[in-house]
Specification:
Chain lengths: 314, 266
């Protein structure tokens, strides 16, 4: 079975307004985050996968199926929307159990599975309370429960962490990780970049309806040649490192930490820098605590590509 | 483990719809609209103590046609059926129906049947109540209403209510799918239905009212400007109304299949 979600030259216009334009993209299993400012086209992409929108041009395939085939897609896809998209007046249990019934579960199986799913999102105690009486975080969790209830191959999660407290966030992220490691596609849009960074296997960066970058965050970062790579080195004598690396053309900037226990080197050629650093360490018998890329994360890449303000949220 | 059942799907979706009515404010308005005429009918009997009040069958026909059918049932159908999908868009809950493994045709059918069963239950029971509230206070009226003719009249009125709910229901469901503000086309339809008798016959044949007319036991005069035409036969009326309603429901399924959710785009 085809396991990719593919967009082939897909455009979506709302009248004269652009949703997304000429998107060609393949999304494989694992956690893929859609990142971009409001109006970038994240929800449009998600709605196109879920089949609630049809493209103006181009073709979308979801595991080989056309999103226009509502029955096939609803079995394949679980969608946690930004909005409370469930009918009102029900308890959390009712709505999950009902959905499972619609997916063909027997009454007993639906009953047992509904409770198991609600337990997964931490709603066991509130299962039989009306959703209208839920807090924002609880409603968010019941939406996640609805999305995962029928064990779909593809999970689409539009801002799934909104309204969740830190503990619930950690639990939900762990749940997404488990689903991804079981071979599911987990597609997340989130404004919380440091969490995107922690959980994503890949990112798709969008701006004004266009894809700006896509792939693993390291790959994306390495393609940004305008911004030298920043590498953090924690060691006992940073001044020694600084004096040696400055002799190389690829190094454009060095900042020594105020505690004199490390430095950040900006270099246009990271590979060459790593080789040089090894030599410096050996020649000067340095004690090194850590060496790590300082801007190989979603936040930095977002800032370089889309001009974010670096405040941690878009 | 998984065993599909279209009936189960249908009943589940209808249950969702009933819950929605139960908590919806608009249905409260429909209930008030349905019950208010009962109070109006009960008032003369209470105030006059039944003295000098002679309920005539033609009087009830006037009440039924003008107030009950063309205002109460019409606006109730407009209010309930036009909101079947429009309110889902307003509440941003249409996603749910798009993400369940059910054909869109089934969603349309379930919502329509839920609305229809609710409206027919409400208006058949309140129609019976209005009938007896009108005739019961005065002994001659009471006696007449219990005769075979009186009972036959009541059965006819109830059949009209059923047909009206079927036809207006389908029409307003379609209007709710097409128009952002369904009340504007609803008022246009109301004018056509209420004053269609002054229009040339070809336009009168385009009204639901003409086909319902066949089953209303007595005819109320519409004044000097009315262009009276003979309503089609009972069989033709039923076939036309069933065919038109079925076509409108099918058209609604086509529209829903093509409807995209654009309220959530970022």
């Amino acid at each position: 079975m085809e396991r990719l979600i593919t967009f082939d030259n897909v455009s979506k216009f709302y009248g004269e307004s652009l949703g997304v334009n000429r998107v060609t993209l393949s999304i494989g299993p694992g956690i893929t985050s859609l990142v971009g400012p409001n109006g970038a086209g994240k929800t449009t992409l998600m709605n196109l996968i879920a089949g609630v929108l049809t493209p103006t041009g181009g073709t979308v395939r979801v595991s080989g199926e056309s999103p226009a085939d509502a029955e096939a897609i609803s079995a394949l896809v679980g969608y946690c929307t930004q909005f409370d998209s469930f009918p009102k007046g029900f308890t959390g249990y009712d709505i999950v159990e009902g959905l499972l019934t619609l997916h063909g579960y027997s009454i007993r199986a639906a009953r047992d599975h509904a409770m198991a799913v609600l337990a997964k999102v931490g709603l066991t105690e509130a299962a039989h309370r009306k959703i209208a009486a839920y807090s924002k975080g609880m409603r968010q969790r019941v939406k996640v429960a609805l999305a995962i209830a029928h064990d779909p191959q593809i999970l689409i999660l539009d801002e799934p962490l909104n309204g969740l407290d830190p503990m619930a966030r950690a639990e939900v992220i762990e749940l997404f990780r488990n689903l991804a490691s079981a071979g599911r596609h987990v597609i997340i849009s989130s404004h919380i970049l440091h969490e995107v960074d922690v959980i994503s296997d890949g990112v798709v960066m969008l701006s004004n309806g266009y894809i700006v970058a896509e792939g693993g965050i390291r790959d994306v970062r390495s393609q940004i040649e305008d911004h030298p790579m920043q590498i953090l080195v924690r060691c006992d004598r940073p001044a020694v490192v600084a004096s040696h690396v400055f002799t190389h053309d690829s190094v454009v900037e060095v900042k020594i930490h105020a505690d004199n226990a490390g430095l950040v080197v900006s270099t246009k050629n990271p590979r060459q820098f790593y080789r040089l650093l090894n030599q410096i360490i050996l020649d000067n018998d340095l004690s090194v605590e850590a060496v790590a890329p300082a801007d190989e994360n979603v936040h930095s890449v977002y800032e370089y590509l889309l001009g974010g303000n670096g405040a941690g949220r878009i | 483990m998984k065993s599909g059942s279209r009936w189960r799907h249908l009943f589940f979706l209808m249950r969702l719809e009933f819950k929605r009515y139960w908590r919806g404010r608009k249905f409260g308005g429909v209930l008030i609209l349905a019950i208010a005429p009962l109070l109006i009918l009960a008032l003369p009997a209470v105030l006059s103590g039944n003295r000098g009040f002679r309920p005539l069958p033609i009087g009830y026909t006037g009440f039924f046609q003008v107030l009950w059918l063309h205002l109460v049932i019409f606006f109730s159908c407009a209010s309930v059926f036009s909101q079947l999908f429009r309110s889902e868009v307003q509440e941003k809950t249409l996603h749910y129906y798009y993400m369940v493994p059910i054909r869109r045709e089934m969603v349309v059918l379930a919502k329509y049947l839920a609305g229809l069963s609710l409206m027919t239950t409400l208006f058949i029971s309140t129609s019976i109540a209005t009938y007896y509230l009108y005739f019961w206070p005065a002994p001659p009226g009471r006696n007449w209403s219990l005769t075979r003719v009186g009972t036959q009249h009541l059965a006819n009125y109830l059949f009209v209510v059923l047909l009206a709910c079927i036809a207006y229901g389908a029409l307003f469901m379609l209007i709710g799918l097409i128009f952002r503000n369904p009340m504007i086309p609803a008022i246009f339809v109301l004018l056509l239905e209420s004053f269609g008798y002054v229009l040339p016959p070809i336009f009168q044949r385009m009204t639901i009212g003409l086909y319902l007319q066949r089953f209303i036991p007595l005819t109320v005069a519409h004044g000097p400007f009315a262009i009276m035409i003979e309503p089609p036969s009972a069989t033709t009326s039923v076939v036309v109304l069933a065919f038109v309603s079925g076509t409108i429901i099918w058209l609604s399924t086509v529209i829903l299949r093509r409807t995209q959710i654009t309220y959530s785009v970022d």
